[in-house]
Amino acid sequence: MASLERKGAIALTTAGLLLSGAGLRMGCSSYVGSETLPPISALDNNQNNKASSLATSKNETIEDLSQLFAEPSLVRGWLNVNSDITLEKLRGRIVVVDFWTTFCAPCLEALPRLNNIAKQYGADGVVVLAITYESADTVVQNLKRLRLLDKVDNLIIGVDANKAYEKAGIEAIPVTYLFGRDGKRIKLPQTVLVKEGDLREGIEKLLKEDKSRGINGRLFPLVQKGKASGTANQVENELASTKNSLQEAAFYDFLASMKRELKEGTLSPTKCYQLLCSFYEGSLSGENAKGNEAIRYLATARLASLYLYEHTPSELKKDIVEKLWKRIKEDPSLKVKDAAVDVIYGIFFYEKEEDRIKAGQRLRKLAKKVRNPDLRWNMEWKGEALIKGKGFAFVAPQTQFIKWRDAVLQKLAAGEKGQNKIMSTEAQLIREVLYSNKNRWSRWEDPQKLRSLFKAIREKARNPKEEMLLVSVLSLDVPFLEERVSLSRENKGLIGRFLIHYLGYSKKVYGRIDNGYEYTILEALGMIGVEEVGEKWRGVLKSKLNQFLASKEDAVRLRAYLLKLKIEAVER
User: Fold this and answer.
1) Is 181 left (phi over 0), alpha (psi -120 to 50) or beta?
2) SS3 for 184?
3) What 3-state DSSP class applies to 102?
4) Taking the model in full, what pTM does it have?
5) Residues forming beta bridges with residue 77, ordered by sequence position
6) Residue whose C-alpha is closest to residue 286's, from 253, 332, 255
7) How far apart are CA 398 and CA 54, in angstroms?
8) Least buried of 29, 430, 453, 561, by fewest C-beta within 10 Å?
9) Domain limits of the chain?
10) Architecture of domain 37-239
11) Is the CB of residue 469 less than 8 Å from the CB of residue 408?
Protein backbone atom coordinates (compact mmCIF):
# COMPACT_ATOMS: atom_id res chain seq x y z
CA MET A 1 0.00 0.00 0.00
CA ALA A 2 1.27 3.46 -0.83
CA SER A 3 2.28 5.45 2.19
CA LEU A 4 -0.85 7.04 3.60
CA GLU A 5 0.68 10.36 4.50
CA ARG A 6 1.55 11.04 0.88
CA LYS A 7 -1.98 12.12 0.04
CA GLY A 8 -2.05 15.90 -0.14
CA ALA A 9 1.30 16.05 1.57
CA ILE A 10 3.73 16.59 -1.28
CA ALA A 11 4.82 20.15 -1.93
CA LEU A 12 3.37 20.16 -5.41
CA THR A 13 4.80 23.48 -6.48
CA THR A 14 8.34 22.40 -5.71
CA ALA A 15 7.80 18.89 -7.07
CA GLY A 16 6.39 20.29 -10.29
CA LEU A 17 9.40 22.55 -10.62
CA LEU A 18 11.75 19.60 -10.40
CA LEU A 19 9.75 17.51 -12.81
CA SER A 20 9.71 20.22 -15.42
CA GLY A 21 13.26 21.32 -14.79
CA ALA A 22 15.23 18.13 -14.50
CA GLY A 23 12.94 15.15 -14.86
CA LEU A 24 10.04 13.75 -16.87
CA ARG A 25 7.76 16.08 -18.78
CA MET A 26 4.30 14.98 -19.82
CA GLY A 27 1.77 15.99 -22.40
CA CYS A 28 -0.84 15.58 -19.67
CA SER A 29 -1.45 16.17 -16.00
CA SER A 30 0.39 14.01 -13.48
CA TYR A 31 -1.66 13.11 -10.41
CA VAL A 32 1.28 12.98 -7.98
CA GLY A 33 0.59 11.04 -4.80
CA SER A 34 -3.02 10.31 -5.72
CA GLU A 35 -4.37 6.96 -4.62
CA THR A 36 -7.31 7.11 -7.04
CA LEU A 37 -6.95 7.54 -10.76
CA PRO A 38 -9.69 9.78 -12.20
CA PRO A 39 -11.46 8.91 -15.46
CA ILE A 40 -9.64 9.78 -18.65
CA SER A 41 -12.05 12.61 -19.33
CA ALA A 42 -10.99 14.23 -16.05
CA LEU A 43 -7.31 14.26 -16.95
CA ASP A 44 -5.96 17.52 -18.30
CA ASN A 45 -5.26 17.39 -22.02
CA ASN A 46 -4.61 21.11 -22.38
CA GLN A 47 -0.93 20.47 -22.92
CA ASN A 48 -1.35 17.81 -25.60
CA ASN A 49 -0.47 20.13 -28.45
CA LYS A 50 2.47 21.49 -26.53
CA ALA A 51 3.80 18.00 -25.85
CA SER A 52 4.76 17.45 -29.47
CA SER A 53 7.43 20.12 -29.05
CA LEU A 54 9.02 18.33 -26.12
CA ALA A 55 10.94 15.71 -28.13
CA THR A 56 14.52 16.28 -27.13
CA SER A 57 17.90 15.58 -28.64
CA LYS A 58 18.26 12.70 -26.18
CA ASN A 59 15.29 10.90 -27.79
CA GLU A 60 17.01 11.21 -31.16
CA THR A 61 20.05 9.24 -29.93
CA ILE A 62 18.12 5.95 -29.98
CA GLU A 63 18.95 4.58 -33.41
CA ASP A 64 19.01 0.84 -32.80
CA LEU A 65 16.88 -1.61 -30.83
CA SER A 66 20.01 -2.97 -29.17
CA GLN A 67 20.36 0.32 -27.26
CA LEU A 68 17.18 -0.50 -25.36
CA PHE A 69 17.34 -4.29 -25.04
CA ALA A 70 21.00 -5.31 -24.99
CA GLU A 71 20.72 -5.27 -21.19
CA PRO A 72 17.72 -7.37 -20.00
CA SER A 73 17.77 -5.65 -16.60
CA LEU A 74 16.59 -2.34 -18.10
CA VAL A 75 13.00 -3.66 -17.89
CA ARG A 76 12.44 -5.74 -14.78
CA GLY A 77 9.01 -7.22 -15.44
CA TRP A 78 6.62 -8.05 -18.30
CA LEU A 79 2.88 -8.57 -18.71
CA ASN A 80 1.23 -10.72 -21.41
CA VAL A 81 4.34 -12.84 -21.91
CA ASN A 82 5.67 -15.77 -19.88
CA SER A 83 9.38 -14.90 -20.02
CA ASP A 84 11.46 -11.74 -20.19
CA ILE A 85 11.78 -9.95 -23.52
CA THR A 86 15.35 -10.02 -24.81
CA LEU A 87 17.07 -8.67 -27.90
CA GLU A 88 17.36 -12.21 -29.22
CA LYS A 89 13.57 -12.71 -29.07
CA LEU A 90 13.01 -9.47 -30.98
CA ARG A 91 15.40 -10.26 -33.82
CA GLY A 92 13.68 -10.43 -37.20
CA ARG A 93 10.58 -8.66 -35.94
CA ILE A 94 9.12 -5.23 -36.59
CA VAL A 95 9.04 -3.64 -33.14
CA VAL A 96 7.03 -0.69 -31.82
CA VAL A 97 8.26 0.64 -28.46
CA ASP A 98 5.95 3.04 -26.60
CA PHE A 99 6.96 4.81 -23.36
CA TRP A 100 3.91 5.64 -21.27
CA THR A 101 2.40 5.79 -17.75
CA THR A 102 -1.06 5.24 -16.30
CA PHE A 103 -1.14 8.87 -15.17
CA CYS A 104 -0.88 10.31 -18.68
CA ALA A 105 -4.14 10.87 -20.57
CA PRO A 106 -2.65 10.87 -24.10
CA CYS A 107 -0.78 7.67 -23.22
CA LEU A 108 -3.98 5.97 -22.06
CA GLU A 109 -5.93 7.13 -25.09
CA ALA A 110 -3.26 5.66 -27.37
CA LEU A 111 -3.20 2.21 -25.74
CA PRO A 112 -6.34 0.78 -27.45
CA ARG A 113 -5.06 2.03 -30.83
CA LEU A 114 -1.67 0.42 -30.22
CA ASN A 115 -3.47 -2.74 -29.14
CA ASN A 116 -5.39 -2.82 -32.43
CA ILE A 117 -2.14 -2.40 -34.35
CA ALA A 118 -0.59 -5.29 -32.41
CA LYS A 119 -3.62 -7.45 -33.11
CA GLN A 120 -3.85 -6.56 -36.81
CA TYR A 121 -0.16 -6.99 -37.64
CA GLY A 122 0.82 -9.60 -35.05
CA ALA A 123 0.77 -12.43 -37.56
CA ASP A 124 3.22 -10.45 -39.71
CA GLY A 125 5.85 -10.44 -36.98
CA VAL A 126 4.95 -7.02 -35.56
CA VAL A 127 5.22 -6.72 -31.77
CA VAL A 128 4.19 -3.69 -29.68
CA LEU A 129 6.02 -3.12 -26.38
CA ALA A 130 4.44 -0.59 -23.98
CA ILE A 131 7.01 0.35 -21.35
CA THR A 132 6.42 2.17 -18.07
CA TYR A 133 8.47 2.80 -14.93
CA GLU A 134 5.45 1.92 -12.76
CA SER A 135 5.09 -1.40 -10.94
CA ALA A 136 2.99 -4.26 -12.31
CA ASP A 137 0.48 -3.87 -9.50
CA THR A 138 0.03 -0.15 -10.20
CA VAL A 139 -0.42 -0.78 -13.92
CA VAL A 140 -2.97 -3.57 -13.47
CA GLN A 141 -4.99 -1.75 -10.81
CA ASN A 142 -5.14 1.54 -12.72
CA LEU A 143 -6.00 -0.11 -16.04
CA LYS A 144 -8.76 -2.03 -14.29
CA ARG A 145 -10.15 1.16 -12.76
CA LEU A 146 -10.20 2.80 -16.17
CA ARG A 147 -11.77 -0.24 -17.86
CA LEU A 148 -8.74 -0.61 -20.13
CA LEU A 149 -7.34 -3.96 -18.99
CA ASP A 150 -9.18 -5.88 -21.72
CA LYS A 151 -8.04 -3.32 -24.31
CA VAL A 152 -4.31 -4.01 -23.91
CA ASP A 153 -4.34 -7.80 -24.21
CA ASN A 154 -2.29 -7.76 -27.44
CA LEU A 155 0.39 -5.49 -26.00
CA ILE A 156 3.48 -6.73 -24.19
CA ILE A 157 3.77 -4.35 -21.24
CA GLY A 158 7.13 -3.70 -19.62
CA VAL A 159 7.07 -2.56 -15.98
CA ASP A 160 9.61 -1.34 -13.42
CA ALA A 161 11.54 0.16 -16.34
CA ASN A 162 13.26 3.14 -14.72
CA LYS A 163 16.60 2.14 -16.27
CA ALA A 164 15.07 1.88 -19.74
CA TYR A 165 13.68 5.41 -19.37
CA GLU A 166 17.12 6.65 -18.36
CA LYS A 167 18.85 4.74 -21.15
CA ALA A 168 16.49 6.25 -23.72
CA GLY A 169 16.77 9.72 -22.18
CA ILE A 170 12.97 10.02 -22.07
CA GLU A 171 11.94 13.57 -21.17
CA ALA A 172 8.41 13.59 -22.59
CA ILE A 173 5.63 11.02 -22.89
CA PRO A 174 4.11 9.34 -24.75
CA VAL A 175 7.21 8.61 -26.85
CA THR A 176 6.93 5.99 -29.62
CA TYR A 177 9.69 4.38 -31.70
CA LEU A 178 9.42 2.07 -34.70
CA PHE A 179 12.21 -0.41 -35.50
CA GLY A 180 12.64 -2.53 -38.63
CA ARG A 181 13.51 -6.23 -38.72
CA ASP A 182 17.20 -5.34 -38.73
CA GLY A 183 16.77 -3.45 -35.44
CA LYS A 184 17.34 -0.06 -37.05
CA ARG A 185 15.03 2.77 -36.06
CA ILE A 186 12.56 3.98 -38.68
CA LYS A 187 12.14 7.75 -38.51
CA LEU A 188 8.58 8.96 -37.93
CA PRO A 189 7.47 12.59 -38.34
CA GLN A 190 7.63 12.94 -34.54
CA THR A 191 8.45 10.75 -31.56
CA VAL A 192 6.16 12.43 -29.00
CA LEU A 193 2.39 12.00 -29.48
CA VAL A 194 2.93 9.93 -32.62
CA LYS A 195 -0.12 9.89 -34.90
CA GLU A 196 -1.70 6.47 -35.49
CA GLY A 197 -1.74 7.08 -39.23
CA ASP A 198 2.00 7.81 -39.30
CA LEU A 199 2.75 4.65 -37.31
CA ARG A 200 0.56 2.47 -39.55
CA GLU A 201 2.12 4.01 -42.65
CA GLY A 202 5.59 3.17 -41.31
CA ILE A 203 4.59 -0.45 -40.61
CA GLU A 204 2.87 -0.85 -43.98
CA LYS A 205 5.97 0.47 -45.75
CA LEU A 206 8.15 -2.12 -43.98
CA LEU A 207 5.72 -4.93 -44.87
CA LYS A 208 5.70 -3.84 -48.52
CA GLU A 209 9.50 -3.94 -48.53
CA ASP A 210 9.31 -7.48 -47.10
CA LYS A 211 7.01 -8.50 -49.94
CA SER A 212 9.20 -6.94 -52.61
CA ARG A 213 12.23 -8.78 -51.23
CA GLY A 214 10.39 -12.07 -50.85
CA ILE A 215 10.73 -12.03 -47.05
CA ASN A 216 8.22 -14.06 -45.04
CA GLY A 217 7.86 -12.11 -41.83
CA ARG A 218 5.42 -14.48 -40.16
CA LEU A 219 6.86 -15.55 -36.80
CA PHE A 220 5.62 -17.36 -33.72
CA PRO A 221 3.71 -14.71 -31.70
CA LEU A 222 5.34 -13.55 -28.46
CA VAL A 223 2.11 -12.43 -26.77
CA GLN A 224 0.68 -14.85 -24.21
CA LYS A 225 -2.35 -13.19 -22.70
CA GLY A 226 -2.64 -13.22 -18.94
CA LYS A 227 0.94 -14.37 -18.35
CA ALA A 228 3.67 -12.42 -16.56
CA SER A 229 7.40 -12.60 -15.89
CA GLY A 230 10.08 -10.97 -13.76
CA THR A 231 8.79 -8.54 -11.15
CA ALA A 232 5.32 -8.81 -12.72
CA ASN A 233 4.88 -12.44 -11.61
CA GLN A 234 2.98 -11.28 -8.54
CA VAL A 235 -0.01 -10.12 -10.62
CA GLU A 236 -0.38 -13.16 -12.87
CA ASN A 237 -3.19 -14.64 -10.79
CA GLU A 238 -5.01 -11.32 -10.88
CA LEU A 239 -4.66 -11.14 -14.66
CA ALA A 240 -6.04 -14.63 -15.00
CA SER A 241 -8.97 -14.01 -12.63
CA THR A 242 -12.19 -12.69 -14.14
CA LYS A 243 -14.41 -12.60 -11.06
CA ASN A 244 -13.14 -9.32 -9.66
CA SER A 245 -12.93 -7.81 -13.12
CA LEU A 246 -16.60 -8.52 -13.78
CA GLN A 247 -17.53 -7.14 -10.38
CA GLU A 248 -15.51 -4.00 -11.01
CA ALA A 249 -16.97 -3.59 -14.50
CA ALA A 250 -20.48 -3.48 -13.03
CA PHE A 251 -19.32 -1.07 -10.33
CA TYR A 252 -17.73 1.33 -12.81
CA ASP A 253 -20.83 1.24 -15.00
CA PHE A 254 -22.81 2.28 -11.94
CA LEU A 255 -20.36 5.07 -11.01
CA ALA A 256 -20.43 6.41 -14.56
CA SER A 257 -24.22 6.79 -14.45
CA MET A 258 -24.60 7.80 -10.79
CA LYS A 259 -23.81 11.50 -11.14
CA ARG A 260 -25.87 11.91 -14.29
CA GLU A 261 -28.91 10.04 -12.95
CA LEU A 262 -28.87 11.91 -9.66
CA LYS A 263 -28.81 15.18 -11.57
CA GLU A 264 -31.65 14.07 -13.84
CA GLY A 265 -33.67 12.78 -10.90
CA THR A 266 -33.94 9.23 -12.29
CA LEU A 267 -32.01 7.75 -9.35
CA SER A 268 -32.99 8.57 -5.81
CA PRO A 269 -30.28 9.26 -3.19
CA THR A 270 -31.62 6.37 -1.13
CA LYS A 271 -31.36 3.92 -4.03
CA CYS A 272 -27.88 5.23 -4.85
CA TYR A 273 -26.83 4.71 -1.23
CA GLN A 274 -28.21 1.17 -1.21
CA LEU A 275 -26.27 0.34 -4.37
CA LEU A 276 -23.03 1.80 -2.98
CA CYS A 277 -23.47 -0.26 0.18
CA SER A 278 -24.24 -3.44 -1.76
CA PHE A 279 -21.12 -3.05 -3.86
CA TYR A 280 -19.09 -2.37 -0.71
CA GLU A 281 -20.45 -5.41 1.14
CA GLY A 282 -20.14 -7.65 -1.91
CA SER A 283 -16.49 -6.76 -2.26
CA LEU A 284 -15.67 -7.88 1.28
CA SER A 285 -15.64 -11.49 0.10
CA GLY A 286 -12.60 -12.79 -1.72
CA GLU A 287 -9.58 -15.05 -1.50
CA ASN A 288 -8.11 -12.97 1.30
CA ALA A 289 -9.46 -10.87 4.14
CA LYS A 290 -9.24 -7.66 2.13
CA GLY A 291 -11.47 -8.84 -0.71
CA ASN A 292 -11.77 -6.34 -3.54
CA GLU A 293 -10.17 -3.34 -1.89
CA ALA A 294 -10.45 -1.12 -4.98
CA ILE A 295 -14.25 -1.25 -5.00
CA ARG A 296 -14.57 -0.67 -1.26
CA TYR A 297 -12.18 2.24 -1.44
CA LEU A 298 -14.11 4.01 -4.20
CA ALA A 299 -17.53 3.09 -2.78
CA THR A 300 -16.42 4.75 0.46
CA ALA A 301 -14.97 7.83 -1.24
CA ARG A 302 -18.19 8.36 -3.25
CA LEU A 303 -20.20 8.69 -0.03
CA ALA A 304 -18.86 12.24 0.26
CA SER A 305 -20.58 13.43 -2.93
CA LEU A 306 -23.79 11.62 -1.95
CA TYR A 307 -23.79 13.27 1.48
CA LEU A 308 -23.25 16.71 -0.07
CA TYR A 309 -25.91 16.17 -2.77
CA GLU A 310 -28.56 18.83 -2.26
CA HIS A 311 -31.52 16.40 -2.34
CA THR A 312 -30.11 13.83 0.10
CA PRO A 313 -32.48 13.73 3.13
CA SER A 314 -31.08 14.40 6.62
CA GLU A 315 -31.90 10.89 7.88
CA LEU A 316 -29.91 9.37 5.04
CA LYS A 317 -27.01 11.69 5.82
CA LYS A 318 -26.96 10.42 9.41
CA ASP A 319 -26.85 6.84 8.16
CA ILE A 320 -23.98 7.66 5.78
CA VAL A 321 -21.96 9.12 8.65
CA GLU A 322 -22.53 6.09 10.86
CA LYS A 323 -21.49 3.76 8.04
CA LEU A 324 -18.27 5.76 7.69
CA TRP A 325 -17.47 5.52 11.40
CA LYS A 326 -18.09 1.76 11.20
CA ARG A 327 -15.73 1.40 8.25
CA ILE A 328 -13.00 3.28 10.11
CA LYS A 329 -13.27 0.78 12.93
CA GLU A 330 -13.96 -2.47 11.08
CA ASP A 331 -12.73 -2.51 7.48
CA PRO A 332 -9.72 -4.85 7.07
CA SER A 333 -7.97 -2.46 4.68
CA LEU A 334 -5.90 0.50 5.89
CA LYS A 335 -6.54 2.17 2.54
CA VAL A 336 -10.32 2.00 2.96
CA LYS A 337 -10.09 3.17 6.58
CA ASP A 338 -8.04 6.10 5.40
CA ALA A 339 -10.62 6.97 2.73
CA ALA A 340 -13.39 6.92 5.36
CA VAL A 341 -11.34 9.28 7.56
CA ASP A 342 -10.94 11.67 4.62
CA VAL A 343 -14.69 11.64 3.93
CA ILE A 344 -15.54 12.29 7.60
CA TYR A 345 -13.11 15.19 7.56
CA GLY A 346 -14.54 16.59 4.32
CA ILE A 347 -18.12 16.31 5.55
CA PHE A 348 -17.71 17.85 8.98
CA PHE A 349 -15.18 20.58 8.22
CA TYR A 350 -17.99 22.85 7.00
CA GLU A 351 -20.70 21.66 9.40
CA LYS A 352 -21.77 23.76 12.35
CA GLU A 353 -19.15 24.19 15.06
CA GLU A 354 -20.69 21.83 17.64
CA ASP A 355 -20.90 18.90 15.18
CA ARG A 356 -17.46 19.66 13.77
CA ILE A 357 -15.80 19.59 17.18
CA LYS A 358 -17.58 16.38 18.18
CA ALA A 359 -16.42 14.67 14.99
CA GLY A 360 -12.84 15.85 15.63
CA GLN A 361 -12.91 14.54 19.19
CA ARG A 362 -14.29 11.20 18.02
CA LEU A 363 -11.56 10.87 15.38
CA ARG A 364 -8.82 11.54 17.91
CA LYS A 365 -10.35 9.10 20.39
CA LEU A 366 -10.49 6.34 17.76
CA ALA A 367 -6.92 7.16 16.69
CA LYS A 368 -5.57 6.11 20.10
CA LYS A 369 -6.61 2.52 19.34
CA VAL A 370 -4.91 2.44 15.92
CA ARG A 371 -1.50 0.75 15.71
CA ASN A 372 -0.54 1.74 12.17
CA PRO A 373 1.39 5.05 12.52
CA ASP A 374 0.36 6.46 9.12
CA LEU A 375 -3.36 5.92 9.68
CA ARG A 376 -3.17 7.10 13.28
CA TRP A 377 -1.35 10.27 12.19
CA ASN A 378 -3.96 10.98 9.51
CA MET A 379 -6.76 10.56 12.04
CA GLU A 380 -5.09 12.69 14.69
CA TRP A 381 -4.22 15.68 12.55
CA LYS A 382 -7.62 15.68 10.85
CA GLY A 383 -9.24 15.43 14.27
CA GLU A 384 -7.20 18.39 15.47
CA ALA A 385 -8.13 20.36 12.35
CA LEU A 386 -11.84 19.71 12.97
CA ILE A 387 -11.57 20.76 16.61
CA LYS A 388 -9.72 23.96 15.76
CA GLY A 389 -11.75 24.66 12.65
CA LYS A 390 -8.71 25.18 10.45
CA GLY A 391 -6.94 23.09 7.86
CA PHE A 392 -3.22 22.37 7.71
CA ALA A 393 -1.19 22.92 4.54
CA PHE A 394 1.48 20.25 4.19
CA VAL A 395 3.98 22.28 2.20
CA ALA A 396 7.36 23.66 3.16
CA PRO A 397 6.96 27.05 4.89
CA GLN A 398 8.13 29.79 2.51
CA THR A 399 11.23 30.85 4.39
CA GLN A 400 14.03 32.84 2.81
CA PHE A 401 15.99 29.63 2.30
CA ILE A 402 13.12 27.92 0.45
CA LYS A 403 12.60 30.96 -1.77
CA TRP A 404 16.32 31.00 -2.56
CA ARG A 405 16.40 27.24 -3.23
CA ASP A 406 13.40 27.42 -5.57
CA ALA A 407 14.92 30.40 -7.39
CA VAL A 408 18.10 28.37 -7.93
CA LEU A 409 16.06 25.45 -9.27
CA GLN A 410 14.24 27.77 -11.65
CA LYS A 411 17.59 28.99 -12.98
CA LEU A 412 18.70 25.38 -13.36
CA ALA A 413 15.52 24.51 -15.26
CA ALA A 414 15.92 27.54 -17.53
CA GLY A 415 19.54 26.60 -18.19
CA GLU A 416 18.61 23.01 -19.06
CA LYS A 417 16.06 24.32 -21.57
CA GLY A 418 18.66 26.63 -23.10
CA GLN A 419 16.85 29.78 -21.96
CA ASN A 420 19.82 30.94 -19.88
CA LYS A 421 23.30 30.70 -21.34
CA ILE A 422 24.94 31.31 -17.99
CA MET A 423 23.77 29.46 -14.86
CA SER A 424 24.35 30.64 -11.33
CA THR A 425 27.15 28.89 -9.45
CA GLU A 426 24.60 27.20 -7.19
CA ALA A 427 22.60 25.88 -10.17
CA GLN A 428 25.82 24.54 -11.71
CA LEU A 429 26.64 22.85 -8.41
CA ILE A 430 23.27 21.10 -8.28
CA ARG A 431 23.65 19.91 -11.87
CA GLU A 432 27.19 18.66 -11.25
CA VAL A 433 26.51 16.83 -7.99
CA LEU A 434 22.89 15.71 -8.28
CA TYR A 435 21.91 15.65 -11.95
CA SER A 436 25.07 14.91 -13.91
CA ASN A 437 24.45 11.17 -13.67
CA LYS A 438 21.84 9.94 -16.16
CA ASN A 439 20.86 7.26 -13.64
CA ARG A 440 19.14 9.76 -11.38
CA TRP A 441 16.61 7.27 -10.06
CA SER A 442 18.37 3.91 -10.30
CA ARG A 443 21.26 5.21 -8.17
CA TRP A 444 18.89 5.06 -5.20
CA GLU A 445 18.92 1.27 -5.56
CA ASP A 446 22.72 0.95 -5.43
CA PRO A 447 24.23 1.35 -1.94
CA GLN A 448 27.69 2.13 -3.34
CA LYS A 449 26.30 4.88 -5.59
CA LEU A 450 24.35 6.28 -2.65
CA ARG A 451 27.46 6.45 -0.49
CA SER A 452 29.34 8.17 -3.32
CA LEU A 453 26.50 10.65 -3.74
CA PHE A 454 26.38 11.51 -0.05
CA LYS A 455 30.18 11.90 -0.02
CA ALA A 456 30.02 14.21 -3.06
CA ILE A 457 27.50 16.44 -1.28
CA ARG A 458 29.89 16.87 1.65
CA GLU A 459 32.98 17.40 -0.50
CA LYS A 460 31.69 19.48 -3.41
CA ALA A 461 29.77 22.03 -1.33
CA ARG A 462 32.02 25.05 -0.77
CA ASN A 463 30.27 26.15 2.43
CA PRO A 464 27.58 24.89 4.86
CA LYS A 465 24.82 26.83 3.07
CA GLU A 466 25.57 25.06 -0.22
CA GLU A 467 25.65 21.72 1.60
CA MET A 468 22.25 22.55 3.05
CA LEU A 469 21.02 23.42 -0.47
CA LEU A 470 22.19 20.11 -1.95
CA VAL A 471 20.62 18.09 0.87
CA SER A 472 17.32 19.94 0.52
CA VAL A 473 17.16 19.46 -3.26
CA LEU A 474 18.06 15.78 -2.99
CA SER A 475 15.34 15.31 -0.36
CA LEU A 476 12.75 16.49 -2.88
CA ASP A 477 13.27 13.25 -4.82
CA VAL A 478 12.42 11.04 -1.86
CA PRO A 479 8.58 11.30 -2.08
CA PHE A 480 8.79 9.87 -5.62
CA LEU A 481 11.04 6.88 -4.83
CA GLU A 482 8.20 4.52 -4.02
CA GLU A 483 6.80 4.89 -7.55
CA ARG A 484 10.13 4.77 -9.38
CA VAL A 485 12.48 2.36 -7.61
CA SER A 486 12.61 -0.64 -5.33
CA LEU A 487 14.55 0.24 -2.19
CA SER A 488 16.30 -2.48 -0.23
CA ARG A 489 16.35 -2.44 3.56
CA GLU A 490 20.03 -1.50 3.41
CA ASN A 491 19.33 1.50 1.21
CA LYS A 492 16.42 2.66 3.35
CA GLY A 493 18.78 2.58 6.29
CA LEU A 494 21.45 4.56 4.41
CA ILE A 495 18.97 7.22 3.29
CA GLY A 496 17.34 7.43 6.71
CA ARG A 497 20.64 7.91 8.55
CA PHE A 498 21.73 10.55 6.01
CA LEU A 499 18.51 12.51 6.56
CA ILE A 500 18.70 12.20 10.35
CA HIS A 501 22.26 13.53 10.24
CA TYR A 502 21.10 16.65 8.38
CA LEU A 503 17.95 17.21 10.42
CA GLY A 504 18.49 20.39 12.41
CA TYR A 505 21.39 21.41 10.15
CA SER A 506 19.82 24.81 9.44
CA LYS A 507 20.62 25.89 13.01
CA LYS A 508 24.30 25.24 12.36
CA VAL A 509 24.15 27.38 9.22
CA TYR A 510 21.91 30.24 10.35
CA GLY A 511 22.11 30.01 14.13
CA ARG A 512 18.36 29.33 14.17
CA ILE A 513 15.96 26.75 12.80
CA ASP A 514 14.78 27.29 9.22
CA ASN A 515 11.34 25.65 9.14
CA GLY A 516 11.24 25.38 5.35
CA TYR A 517 14.45 23.35 5.17
CA GLU A 518 13.57 21.23 8.20
CA TYR A 519 10.09 20.47 6.85
CA THR A 520 11.65 19.06 3.67
CA ILE A 521 13.88 16.73 5.71
CA LEU A 522 11.03 15.68 8.03
CA GLU A 523 8.77 14.90 5.07
CA ALA A 524 11.47 12.81 3.38
CA LEU A 525 12.13 10.90 6.61
CA GLY A 526 8.41 10.20 6.94
CA MET A 527 8.43 8.64 3.47
CA ILE A 528 11.53 6.48 4.12
CA GLY A 529 10.53 5.43 7.64
CA VAL A 530 12.71 4.63 10.62
CA GLU A 531 12.60 0.83 10.69
CA GLU A 532 15.98 0.29 9.03
CA VAL A 533 18.10 3.11 10.52
CA GLY A 534 19.02 1.17 13.64
CA GLU A 535 18.39 1.72 17.34
CA LYS A 536 21.25 4.21 17.76
CA TRP A 537 20.02 6.49 14.98
CA ARG A 538 16.42 6.26 16.17
CA GLY A 539 17.72 7.55 19.49
CA VAL A 540 19.44 10.45 17.71
CA LEU A 541 16.22 11.22 15.85
CA LYS A 542 14.15 11.16 19.05
CA SER A 543 16.41 13.72 20.67
CA LYS A 544 16.26 15.97 17.60
CA LEU A 545 12.48 15.73 17.27
CA ASN A 546 11.74 17.47 20.56
CA GLN A 547 12.45 20.94 19.16
CA PHE A 548 10.15 20.30 16.18
CA LEU A 549 7.32 18.79 18.21
CA ALA A 550 7.09 22.16 19.95
CA SER A 551 7.24 24.15 16.70
CA LYS A 552 4.71 26.93 16.11
CA GLU A 553 4.63 25.88 12.45
CA ASP A 554 1.81 23.32 12.30
CA ALA A 555 3.18 21.56 9.21
CA VAL A 556 6.58 21.07 10.88
CA ARG A 557 5.06 19.99 14.20
CA LEU A 558 2.76 17.43 12.55
CA ARG A 559 5.53 16.00 10.38
CA ALA A 560 7.64 15.55 13.50
CA TYR A 561 4.69 13.89 15.25
CA LEU A 562 4.38 11.33 12.44
CA LEU A 563 8.02 10.35 12.96
CA LYS A 564 7.41 10.08 16.70
CA LEU A 565 4.57 7.64 15.99
CA LYS A 566 6.77 5.64 13.58
CA ILE A 567 9.49 5.33 16.22
CA GLU A 568 6.96 4.17 18.81
CA ALA A 569 5.58 1.57 16.36
CA VAL A 570 9.06 0.10 15.81
CA GLU A 571 9.84 0.04 19.52
CA ARG A 572 6.59 -1.65 20.53
Assistant:
1) alpha
2) strand
3) coil
4) 0.62
5) 159, 230
6) 332
7) 31
8) 29
9) 37-239, 241-388, 400-571
10) 3-Layer(aba) Sandwich (3.40)
11) yes
